[in-house]
Amino acid sequence: MKSNRLKCFALQMGFTALSAIFSSSNVFGQTKPNIVFIYADDWGYEDLSCHGSTFCKTPNLDKMAEEGMDFQNFSVCNPVCSPSRTAIMTGHFPARHSVHGHFATVQSHIQRGMPDWLDPNVVMLPRLLKEAGYTTAHYGKWHLTNFDVPDAPSPLEYGYDDYDVFNVSGRFPQMSADSTMIRTINFIEKNKENPFFVSVWIHAVHVPHYPKEKFLAQFPELNEQQKVYAAVIAEADFQIGLLFAKLKELGIEKKTLVIFSSDNGPENTGTEKNKNLDDNSTGPGLGSYYSVGETNGLKGRKRSLFAGGVREPFIVRWSGVVPSGIVNKTSPIAAVDMLPTFVELAGGTLPKDYKTDGESIVPAIKGVSFNRKSIIYWQWLFANKNSDFWPSLGIQDGEWKLLVNKEFNRQELYNINADWAEQENIAAQNPDKVKELEAKLDAWVLTLPKNPPASCFSSERKSMKN
Predict the structure, then answer these.
(1) What is the DSSP letter of 118?
(2) Can you give the pLDDT at residue 24?
């Protein structure tokens, strides 16, 4: 009897030990990876030299692509900042949270049917990772509210342990964008012994531009516009190089997953009048005249649902786990995939009452064949008839992408496997596919909220109703 009890105890201890091992491991049998998610601002798909830029130089991002995987069929879920970032944080298409455009003034939010900040009480990526044992931090741009909203929540209420940001409520200090990577590296040094998750949302290359002389000097052969833009890109690339050097110095590069992407396509180039921003802008720097980002032939730019507005660089590096030197142009992945992917890698769990709009891309980043099952949807409420900015709704289902605007009575269909740049509208040749996809779009729109959550209204908005 005593012998049996000892055997049972030994088995129990064995299962406990195994449980401990698996709880601190991910699907690759390694310890939970540190996760560094770098989200740039307004980068064109072609704004990397490894993506064919005609004038920018990005040696550190090029090296990152050589040492990892370069996914070239990644889409963000809105063609402007705040909603694109909402998708990362929530794993939902931003329209589900009534975040239709960038956060600005309260009056602007009312006019556009938006809340005054992203609801911190919904399921959040940093909170899930924190529950999985991660130390979490956010540095750089926030823009899940705006400086002009005086009573918006702190990033701490979204699940972050530490933060230093700009474009946050005016009741909090606004960090200098220049300190984003410095704060990131300091955080990593302090937390190198345990798993960490850090959002690094850099300012480049959003206006205003603040090119530094040391980087301008690298491009004497370029014209004025390209020189400014290339210098801003070069500084961002340099900062990313400092991050990788620190990971190597600390001996944790093999424990750290790093992803680089951007929130939407390149800004539309301004005229001579836009050289210097006026006092009503976000700062005193250089204006959109210098926003000369490239899309490598993709139709559209920022504020457009065409590929040039929503297809972004997506480079993944995790030494020893992610295959090196791989270009993946076929796996369709989306910003809403980040939450389920990171939670799986962290060994966390999704709440039972939560349903993501994305799916885990762990097989894809491991180099395994990935067949997307979920559909990608877009909503853009501020479409106009000008050029490539007319689509108000979009759907990507497998190889097919349909863009529509019922008010303008327009629709265009693309087979993105055959026409990656979305140049040939084949709607007329495929009426049944158009009808099928449009029905799915109509059904999705019916699931969206009619009004933003009142719990995310500022005191200023509430006082307007009294």
Answers:
(1) -
(2) 39
Domain of 384, CATH number, reads 3.30.1120.10
Q: Report in angstroms the alpha-carbon separations of 212 from 62, 186, 277.
A: 22, 23, 17
Structural domains in the chain (count): 2
* Cis-peptide into 208, omega within 30 deg: yes
pLDDT at residue 393, rounded to an integer = 98
315 vs 114: CA distance, rounded Å:
32
Question: What is the predicted pLDDT for the residue at 280?
Answer: 54
- The answer on 395 and 334 residing in a single domain is no
**Is the Cβ–Cβ distance between 211 and 228 less than 8 Å?**
yes
User: Which strands make up the sheet holding 400-405, listed edge to edge?
Assistant: 376-379, 393-397, 400-405, 410-415
- pTM of this prediction exceeds 0.90: yes
Residues in the chain, pLDDT under 70: 1-30, 278-281, 466
**Are the beta carbons of 185 and 258 closer than 8 angstroms?**
no
Tell me: do 196 and 294 sit in the same domain. yes
The DSSP code for 162 is E
Check residue 466 and give its pLDDT. Answer: 57
pLDDT of residue 85: 98
pLDDT, tens digit, 9 for 90 and up, residues 327-344: 999 999 999 999 999 999
Nearest to 450 by CA among 108, 8, 95, 5: 95
> Distance between CA 264 and CA 113 in Å, rounded?
21
Cα–Cα distance for residue pair 213/228, rounded to 1 Å: 10
Same domain for 319 and 391, yes or no, is no
Q: Quick check: 175 and 168 in contact, CB under 8 A? A: no
- Residues 6 or more apart whose Cβ sits within 8 Å of residue 188: 34, 36, 196, 198, 243, 246, 247, 250, 252
Query: Residue 172 corresponds to which amino acid?
Result: F
Residue with tokens 């791989």, as numbered in its chain: 326
In order of 39, 76, 135, 456, the CA distances from 260 in angstroms are 6, 13, 20, 30
CB environment 34-72: b (16+ within 10 A), e (fewer):
bbbbbbbbbbbbbbbbbbebebbbbebbbbbbebbbbbb
Q: Which residues make beta-bridge pairs with 327? A: 70
**What is the structure's pLDDT at 387?**
87
The answer for residues whose C-beta is within 8 angstroms of residue 132's C-beta and 6 or more apart is: 32, 343, 346, 347, 348, 349
Q: At what angle do helices 224-249 and 59-66 cross, to 10 degrees?
A: 50
In terms of residue numbers, what domain contains 46? 32-375
Considering the domain architecture, whether residues 409 and 327 belong to the same structural domain is answered as no
